[in-house]
Amino acid sequence: MRLFLAILLCKLSRWALRLLGRGGTALPGTLALKLCPDIVARLSRDMRCCVVTGTNGKTTTCRMIEKLLSESGVEAMANRSGSNLERGIAADLCANAELTGRPRRRTAVIECDEAAFKRVCGEIQPEVIVVTNVFRDQLDRYGEVTHTLESIRMGLEKAQRAIVCLNADDSLVASLAPDAPDRVRFYGIDAALGAGSDVSDAPRCIICGAEYEYGFHTYAHLGGFRCPKCGYSRTEPDVAVVGVDALTTEGSAVEIRIDGEVYPAAVSLPAVHNLYNAAAAVTAGLVLGVAPESAVKSLAHIESGFGRMERFELGEARVTMVLVKNPAGCDRAIEYLSGIDGAAAVFCLNDGTADGTDVSWIWDVDFERLFADPAKAPHELIVSGRRAEDMRLRLKYAGADENAVRIVRGAKELADEIAKIPGEVVIMPTYTAMLPLRAELAGRVGRKEFWR
Predict the structure, then answer these.
(1) What is the 3-state secondary structure (H, E, C) of 202-214?
(2) pTM, entire model
(3) Which residue among 28, 139, 237, 259 is the one 20 to 30 A from 393 at the CA level?
(4) pLDDT digits (tens, 9 = 90+) for 243-274
(5) b/e for 28-56, b at 16 or more Cβ within 10 A?
(6) CA-CA distance, 391 to 370, in Å (whole number)?
């Protein structure tokens, strides 16, 4: 009876909140958990579940997995809104369930917060787990990378039947392999796509502390790492991007090796980090029974998640919104922006709980590269958000003319200003800054709310 009442309460509260124009992604799940604390375990019991965790790339990787399953004939439920704590997962499981608790869709692709992973894994008992990467993120909440890694490790210990898909190029993630012996599939990139970065959250060996050597770099601490002292090194991936024919602001043309066989692939999202997401999705899809040809083909039809390389046509502006939340991810956004000549840049910095109350991470981002060549610097700079002044100061020290950096308050006012800018505009907001601005932009172009 408690399960029935919890599902009913969740559905009714979600319906009411959405009638009011709210997302209903957290509160309905909170209410359901109050009434039935084991509701996640009970509703997922008869489902095939793939859980994706890690610092960056969770939402996009989930979208990719959902797409490749759909194109192979499997309709999966997913927490597409990105509400990835236990309450958000509970709300989406309730939405997928009949009042009896029987699931409408029996396959689930679930994005899970790293800190919540250890609890959620014990309840869901996933068939597949994907770990994208581990970067320094929200120090006030997660602490150092070793704490995040330990939380993921504890989750793996509770998921003894899961096949674990690990990023071979991330020395931190790859170190999780001994916690899932004989159940690991590695993915990665077998190509040097960058010269590394000054932002590295794991310069030293997690086993012995010696400094890593690299055969190649992709970005941050990812690449062909090897410890010269103890020998800990990158494992050859089962699924790998082995050739890049084109890497543009629109997408990529690549070759993907799957268990020794090479397939040509088009990835419809730009940037190197989305190649990692693509390799992760393909690896998970293979474990779930998707044929390699079908998995690779689906990558050409991926749509961006809300705020993740999402595009809008607004007035004279062609807008790309790129969510940022930590140095490694923001460096990727800066790299993307740097590749667009004559773009305008909008930085929206908040310090809410979901953003991380400590915004000192902006000083570890390589904003200087935007102003290294004045001829290629953004032709217009706007800052917004509760910590707009901090962002303006950071840009000044990076080389921007402080007097040329405009502060614009409010989502409506900011959207009005963006619409006046001709050409490419790249918006880089933190999470709570992104939500109202994305809602404003979506409303103006007739796009759905992020939770639809």
Answers:
(1) CCECCCCCCECEE
(2) 0.91
(3) 139
(4) 899 888 889 999 999 999 999 999 999 989 99
(5) bbbbbbebbeebbebbbeebbbbbbbbbb
(6) 14
